[in-house]
Amino acid sequence: MSFNTFGHMFRITTFGESHGVAIGCVVDGCPPMIPLTVEEIQHDLDRRRPGQSRFTTQRQEPDAVKILSGVMPHPESGVQVTTGTPIALLIENTDQRSKDYSEIKDKFRPGHADFTYEAKYGLRDYRGGGRSSARETATRVAAGAIARKVLPEVKVRGALVQMGPHKIDREKWDWDEIANNPFFCPDKDKAAFFESYLDGIRKSGSSIGAVIEVVAEGVPAGLGAPIYAKLDSDLASAMMSINAVKGVEIGAGFGAAELTGEENADEMRTGNNGTRFLSNHAGGVLGGISTGQPVVVRFAVKPTSSILTTRRTVDRKGADTDILTKGRHDPCVGIRAVPVGEAMMACVLADHFLRDRGQTGR
Fold first, then answer.
1. 158, 141 in Cβ contact below 8 A?
2. Torsion of CA 29, 34, 40, 42, to 10 degrees
3. What is the pLDDT along the chain (362 residues), one digit of tens a residue?
4. What is the DSSP secondary-structure string of 256-308?
5. Exposed/middle/buried for residue 294 (C-beta within 10 Å: 0-12, 13-18, 19+)
């Protein structure tokens, strides 16, 4: 299996399977002399960690990260810093239950990558999906914590803005509220509604989708390139690479199709701090290059495909059959996708920052 690496100057290669011994990643291209501790990486991993509420999978993984290489104490200050060499990170798997999947090892789960993996490789890891499992995203979050250190002046934050057909009230958006509920929701009232709503979904054995919004503030103007390295195209690719994501939009996104040219154009004026925009329908990117405004990305996450309802499928021999997926699954996988989306945003921005510095010398 190839293509386990993304990025150019700031490159991340992930490895491991859902029910293997461990998962991990190698971050290549991180500049030297950046202070970095395992606690900083662990902070981000703890936000994604499963089993923290009844609204996520009850798989109990501590997601304790180990830094295997790429850091050392500074000879003068003693502060641990990056060395400029590859940073290897390891997270051991401790609560996998492969027996949960033994009954369906010869059946293709609808909505999963079982059929396509077997069609491509001739076999698949039926124990939780192997590389196709969302377990892999823990390594991306770890890499994203390092990417944030490359761009300390940039603040990357994500929020769940829709669950099923229910959208938040943007007039009630409060970033501080995200830490007060298990949904990463910035609308206090809607978060309270989501509790009863998702309880019903969970108790019925079903699942529901969600929309996540990720905002990066403090991004300098000039990141990206006009043709094949557009900042927004790389962001779209990064978000689409997250498990269960089926749609991505930048700024106004699909809503731009409903606007007139006068409404959509982000007018400009000169102020005390230089050029300023009067709106941000472009989502902080014009012509593939950042404008200096907040970069805004939204992505849609489909409902978790593993549900406690019998579904029709076929087995490895091509015979029609039925399947019931057991195990511990998220009733809304979009919840834990929030820190993953933040990590992918941070990784793409760090990569483009280093590319820009290499080309322009800034």
1. no
2. 30
3. 789 999 999 999 999 988 889 999 999 999 999 999 999 999 999 998 865 666 666 556 788 999 999 999 999 999 999 999 999 999 999 876 656 667 788 999 999 899 998 999 988 888 778 788 888 999 999 999 999 999 999 999 999 999 999 999 999 999 999 999 999 999 999 999 999 999 999 999 899 999 999 999 999 999 999 999 999 999 999 999 999 999 999 999 999 999 999 999 999 999 888 889 999 999 999 999 999 999 999 999 999 888 888 999 999 999 999 998 776 678 999 999 999 999 999 999 999 999 999 988 87
4. GGGS-HHHHS--EEEETTEEEES--TTTTEETTEE-SSPEEEEEEEPPPS--S
5. middle
Q: In one letter, which amino acid is 58?
A: Q
Q: Which pTM was predicted? A: 0.93
* Tokens 């250190």 -> residue: 149
Gyration radius from the chain CA atoms: 21
Mapped onto helix, strand or coil, the DSSP state of residue 348 is helix
CB 350 within 8 A of CB 344: no
| Residue 290, both tokens | 């950042």
Q: Cα separation of 69 and 25, whole Å?
A: 11
Looking up tokens 């590319």 gives: 355
